[in-house]
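Can't attach files on this board, so I'm pasting raw text. These are the components:
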Amino acid sequence: MSSINPPPELYRRGRGRLARWIVVFIVFALSVQFFRIQILKHTTYALRSDKNRIRDLPIPAARGTIYDRNGLVIAENVPGYSIVVLPSSIDSFRVVLDTVAVILGHSSEKTERLMATYRQHPNRPIIVESDASFAEVSAIEERRAYLPGGIIVEAAPKRRYPAGAALAHVVGYVAEISDEELQLAEFEAYAPGAIVGQTGVERVYDRVLAGTPGARVVEVNALGRVVGEFRGRETVPAVPGRDLYLNIDLPLQRKAVELFPDTMAGAVVALDPKTGAVLAMYSAPSYDPNVFIGRFEPAEWLELNSDPGRPLFNRAISALYAPGSTFKLVMAGIALREGEADMDTEMPIPCRGALRYYNRTFRDWTPAGHGTLGLFGAIRESCDVYFYQLGIKLTLEDVLAAVPDFGFGSATGIDLPSEASGAFPPDTAWYTRRYGRRGWTNSVVLNLAIGQGENAQSPLKMAQFFSALASDGSLPTPRVSRDGPVAEPAGRLPLRLDQVMDLRSSLVAVVNEEGGTARGSRLRRWTLAGKTGTAQNPHGEDHAWFIGFAPAEDPAIVAAVLVEAGGHGSSMAAPIVARLIDSYLQRYDGENRAVETSGG
Amino acid sequence: MREKAPFNIGDPVILALTLGLALFGVGMIFSAGELDMPSSVTGIWQKQAVWLAISLVVFALALRVEIRWIEWVTPIAYALAIVGLTLVLVLGSGEGPRSWIRYGSIGFQPSELAKLATILVLARLVTGRARPADSLWELWPFVAVVLLPLTLIMAQPDLGTASVFVAILIASLYWSGLSIPKLILFVSPLVSLALAFSTFFWGVWVLLIVAFLYRTRAYLTESLAVLLANVAMGVVVLPVWRSLATYQQVRILAFLQPEADPRGAGWHLIQSQVAIGSGGWLGKGFTMGTQKRLAFLPEQHTDFIFAVVGEEIGFVGIVLVLVCFAVLLWRTLLVAERTSDNFASTVVFGIFALWLAHLVANVGMTVGLLPITGLPLPFLSYGGSFLLVSFVALAAIQRVAAEHRSGP
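---
Top answer:
Structure tokens for the assembled complex are below.
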């Protein structure tokens, strides 16, 4: 290669200088970009770097144990495991779900539900299984090396209800908080994945029982695998929930379940008449709240919810029934208060099995009739003809105005959700609105007087009213929880104490005197008092009522039983009440006295 | 000029900087392997250290080789590189780029040799010309010797490495004294290619070229050829786009819009920026980078070694390394300028262009200024072939510098 080039120095000096400045410019431009990222936007990227690797893992708080009045366990925690996934991306989360689905036997619907949860809360740990068995946990731990990252096995105490179906409606159950619930103000403080009470005591006292979940801060790698605790922030320990003691007497509750006819629907309520303590509350048919815990598929809930027997429905507080003859005590009370009658007052027309009023015949429950009776006897024998006439005598307007004074204007205010307020016409204008000006007559008072017609009350409400008769006339506020002071009475019957005692003595006669409608249910050891009721049921057989208390001299327990389509109260409901009260008094009356004497 | 100077190692600043960067590189590769989980990168720094030792031995040997001998051996090197690139395509298999020739556990990338060989061939072409070309037609041999390895590398496919050949070609022409207007016309079809994604910008560019041709009173045939090339590039870009491998398309799209798919293609870029950005002034400390430790940062020992520097040593470390490169490149240019040997000068400038292209492509990619091309950072990134070739190139520079020093 002969070199006949022009001296390259001619142009290369200039080109070299240009190239040098290009180098300087490039290095400067790159430095500026690094300055922008590293210095100006440092905070943003530092946060992102932290967010990349730091995850809050909730530490579940142990839920408080629920005890009955004897310290017997109603709801407790048993060791359990939950499988939590820290999602790192939507694709990897799906891979994780598909993998665990094989081990945990998840349906594709469950996987899709979890994907939906992830889309809503992409940065939160997702509980893919809240109730994993030990075998499943072992299966995951064994395959750890082959499994995608981000799968965490956590100890998660699991709820168990030893009483099962016997106490389902009172205690309720817990479940993972739903998206709808998260929207509610009541659940403002709760995070997704939180376990909350769904109904019953678990719901009402959730704040007490739940405690406060803690948080563990962990560092994860790019695969979502937990590398270790993050040292930058302290672990916040969980604060366990407080224990809750109920007024419920578990043995009594079990007795109620045992006594209630298996195939029938209805409710049992037992109260302490002095304090309103709910000693037992049973609604039939019932359900096992344990099925809601852990692996609960929505299909199971739908099945329970669409059961024609409506097992989820708490008939003791949410169902309304015509009170039937049990309401005669309210009529008697009104008559006593207005001075329209005393316990011996007789009605003009003796009972011949029916009463003609204008052109209609109003039948007595027994075609044979009761003859001439005073108020005392009319209650004892539940004489309808007597009360028809008492209703006419009191007048419809006065009856409508007086009934709310006896506590029937509002709900009892029990500490359980979904209590239904009773229904009773507020005034005659209500009838006009409902049936039209000519669609009704004053004869509706005859029906009201025997607890039929436009009158519907819950078993709890009736138990509350009878509690007033079993005490000094004050209407106790029913309380399931034993925590805190006894609730203020909801009100008082507008009667003098002697009038209350008069009514009570008539109730003693119902059970204990010749001709009393519940004479078959009298007790050997205690004086049982009470009132039968047979409520007309437009859909079939009459509903059977009995509300009783004992010992009549100083009542310790009031029990109301309603058996849907059970026929006569005297034959169906009264024996249940009698045996229930007997079992309670046998166990407690003696014991309490023993404690009192030894203590005092 | 022919005086033998076995102990003259050339420019001591250049040698110190390259040695310093290479040792720093081994240190950063060690850090890149320090993860909170098992990683194939752990311990890989030892391999790099061995490669560095081999490179230094080869450097010392190569330093003894005269420039004239290099000039003589150029066609052989070029032929070897082309054979290697062809072999890679024939022997390689499987998904992704095929760029390795393996013998047992030793692997070599012929594309690294091809870079150096192409620089040498171009330098010979420049030297072979009596004067700088006045017509673009005269540049066809330059285009041909670059197009051959470029096509073979595109077939691997390795777009990033292929683009380095374009940079080498342009740099050689620049250094050959080709007039700047001619250089602009020569490069114009490439600009068309880049702008073809937007019809508006491409249209504006073509109009500018027309105006430029008119102003410079270029030859008619040449003008028509340039225009035709620009139009063809604009038209051909869609088929070319379709011919790209999916991962290449995804990478380019991710560069344009990294947050569109933060867990997918944009992941590399976002995690690299997060690593660098979270480093701040002084970084999180050597080996302490969390982005790297927890494996959020991908390819931390090769493509994104500079992100590890940014995360662990911070802005101060970044600027120090960049200044080292700036001084290294500056001194290299001085060597190219000062030598009176045309071939040697062009070779040194070609090496300068090669390193600059790698620096810009690699660093630009870690901060999101350029698409992810996978080009390693000279002396720092893990990779034996590139390190070895870099030290051979360094030997050439130092030899030229030494000859100049001890020259007349």
